[in-house]
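Hi everyone, sorry if this is the wrong subforum. Our group has a chain we'd like a structural model of before ordering constructs, and none of us has done structure prediction before. Sequence below.
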Amino acid sequence: MKTQTSKRAFTLVELLVVVSIIALLISILLPSLKRARVQAKQVVCASHQKSIAGGLWNYWTENDGRVPEVISPMTNGVGADGFGDTSIPDDAIDPFYNPIRGYPEIPSKKVWSQSLPNILMPTHMAADEKPFRCPAALVGWPRNDGPFRMTYRVAAANQPNGDENMNAESPYFKEHFGFLDGRIFKIPKPTRQEGSDIGSIIKFAQDQAAARGTFMRDMVRPVGPELVGPHNGAAVVINKRLEIEVRSQKTMNEDLAPAGNGAVKF
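Answer:
Right subforum, don't worry. Here is the predicted structure as tokens:
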């Protein structure tokens, strides 16, 4: 005699309970996974900047204590930041040693020979573009053709029109931020502000600005009145001690607040 096995299907109520439990678990886990992804990208960015800081240190030790003099196309508001002057083509601001599209006989190193990648690679750090790209970058170069290849802003002389021989007639006059300018490398020691002497007040302000300055940092994007970095608003920087530091959005906005002429300080 055959015995009949009974087959019992899920009821609708049981199915809804299972779906609800899965949805609850997802809602609990997703924020943690998102935070982990954000943190992982920040760690990678910091690792990349540490490699560049190592290159700067190597340059310094091999050049009588001087930092490199860098001329860079990576600027705020003009050039490669994704929200600036788009009339300048991507090829004209290539900071790496690659032929300019359409003109293979003219390598871009002829234009940006003093960009930070060209100065450091391969003599002072490995010839690898990866350290010059933050995985969380909001803006960078190239702007219009494929994924970003460089997303960091160096404190240097900036000439996004690609002309190293700047003159008064240049459409974008030479702008100097004074940190990667070939000087002897010194760690700033802010002076005390004593009395009301205007000279000491100015010196104090200059020292404070130098102490907060950076050799390099994530490029940031303006959103309304605020500047937003790629790491939940924060930015990773190489500070004046060649240390890697994460500066919150609040701190970064205080550092980069517009000067009187509307240009950011660093």
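For your construct planning: The radius of gyration is 25 Å. The chain has one domain: 37-255.
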